[in-house]
Amino acid sequence: MSGPRAAGVAAAAALMLAATALAAGGQVNLLHRLAPEIARARSGKVAVLMPASIRADVAASHLYGAGRAIAHGYDIQLAYAPRCDDATACFFAEFEAGAVALLPGTRVALAHGITGSFVGIHCGASCAPATIAWKEAGVLYSVQYVLGGRLAMIALANSAIDGGPR
């Protein structure tokens, strides 16, 4: 089997595997796991909004953080391998602020009356994670997450918004 059908079957198998693995995982305290990255991001020009925790399909000790302040915000990643640099094979989640374009996704209601934009996991040559983005105090924030469905992404955004600057 090849072509679009094979890609669809492979994507469905990957999602089922992720769902099975997720059942064996647990919550990861992002504020603890990403503390050095959050501290580096704080040196930037925008408030760091970070969900307090995220559901993982592996132990927290098997996730690796990276991140820093960038010109107009920050970029913090969480990956299955060190020095992943957003590679599809090891990507787990990413938290960004600043020069991120608002996605043309489904409008969703978030905490404090904020409207966000949600795009679910989608696959082509490879699969892209679910993404949620919102604007707050003139800054565009976004979260990408490989295990994120719509409700999980809304919960992550609301946790970041409710938690305020970290």
Report on this structure.
The longest helix is centred in the N-terminal third of the chain and has 21 residues, at about 5-25. The protein has helices at about 5-25, 30-35, 35-40, 150-165, and strands at about 25-30, 55, 65-70, 75-80, 90-100, 105-110, 115-120, 120-125, 125-130, 130-135, 140-145. It has one domain (about 5-165). The protein contains four helices and eleven strands. The strands form three sheets. It has a seven-stranded antiparallel beta sheet with strand order 3-4-5-11-10-7-6, with helices on one face. The chain has a two-stranded antiparallel sheet with strand order 1-2. The protein has about 170 residues and is of the alpha+beta class. Strand 10 and strand 11 (about 140-145) form a beta hairpin.
Distance between the termini: 49 Å
Q: Can you give the mean pLDDT?
A: 87
Strand runs, count: 11
Number of helices: 4
Strand arrangement across the biggest beta sheet: 3-4-5-11-10-7-6
Radius of gyration computed on alpha carbons? 16 Å
Beta-strand residue fraction: 25-35%
Q: Give the overall silhouette.
A: globular
* Biggest sheet record: 7 strands, antiparallel
Q: How many separate domains?
A: 1
Q: Flag low-confidence runs.
A: 6-23
Q: What order do the helices and strands follow?
A: HEHHEEEEEEEEEEH
Structural class: alpha+beta
Q: What percentage of residues falls in helices of 4 or more residues? A: 25-40%
